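Bumping with the actual sequence this time:
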Amino acid sequence: MNNLNEILVISAARHSHLCPRQVLGARIGLAGAAALGLDLPRHDKRLLAILETDGCFADGVEAATGCTVGHRTLRIEDYGKIAATFIDVQTGQAFRLAPKLDIRQQAYAHAEGETRHYFAQLQAYQIMPERELFTLQPVCLSVPIEKIVSRAGVRVNCAACGEEIINEREVVLNGRILCRSCALGGYYTLEKPEIYKFVPQCLSA
């Protein structure tokens, strides 16, 4: 399904309305897959999308590509950017797409008579040629695709907190297997860490 109107209906239904960033997400998803020569929507795990922000942009990408967090074919690396990289998992080929810096200004030329910037963007992003909307660059991933995708059934436990780690996301530090939170610091800290301190099973008997 490469019909933009149908994709936007799906995205709008999930998001409760349609906004310019959903349109950009849908257009970027279509363009990224086309650059890789892959049909959409995907019902396999060949296409991996790495987005650089979340929110309505992600809804547009998901509606266009069929990539989802649940299928491990959509990931967020939150840089606060409306941008995405699309990877062919079989070949390792990857392209990063981002809006051109002047698209907000250019939108007025494609939405004749519309002076409200939001609605000018909403209309224009649906019809602007891709060459005016996006930059497209071939990129090399800093982490091999095999590491990103990982292997099913691989599990270890953190030597500090005891919690299970899947998808080979552990860190080995000074010979100890640790989760990233314990090794590098996480997005949270325990309010009362002494209450939750991990006690190895062999010492709790």
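The tokens above came from a reply further down the thread. The mean pLDDT is 92.
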